[in-house]
Amino acid sequence: MDETADLPAAVVVGVDGSAPSILALRWAGALAPLLKAHIRAVTCWQFQIAVGTFTPLLWSPEEEAKKICAAAVDEAFGGAPPAGLEMVTSQGQTAKVLVHESQTAQIVVVGSRGHGGFEGLLLGAVSATVAQHAKCPVLVAHGTDLPAGLLVAPGQSSVAGGGQAGSSHAGA
Description:
The protein is built from 4 helices and 6 strands. The longest helix has 17 residues, at 19-35. The chain is of the alpha/beta class. Helix 4 (125-133) links the parallel strand 4 (107-111) and strand 5 (138-141). The protein has helices at 19-35, 61-77, 94-101, 125-133, and strands at 11-14, 39-45, 86-91, 107-111, 138-141, 169-170.
């Protein structure tokens, strides 16, 4: 039985293990209690086809994605993830998967940039695409930490303050 089936639509978070995606998880941790929702941490993977290289047959991109997601959740929440947090791995292009997830989400939270791209960009390709095409509100998390009013201690299920929870842009 799915324990999240009776909960309102999730706070969906794009997770790739980068510092911005860990910040996005922290934002989700602050928003989920306010929205009475669970967190759905989504890590995407694809087979990389390259000519002239050898990929070991024992390597599983899905297992690697699971490890990346679990490590990011552990780092974001200090080993005490919020109750009901769901870790999902999905094959496909990250932006497309997150836009699809947005069809049933209350909000999608993404970091401003993930792995790849160019240093110094304010917005990465995935966050820009999700913000443009999502079917629900999108929060693009910038900076290195939550505003003081939204800080949540590991294992804490409520949020003190919360004045910026409705913001679609987290500035820092």
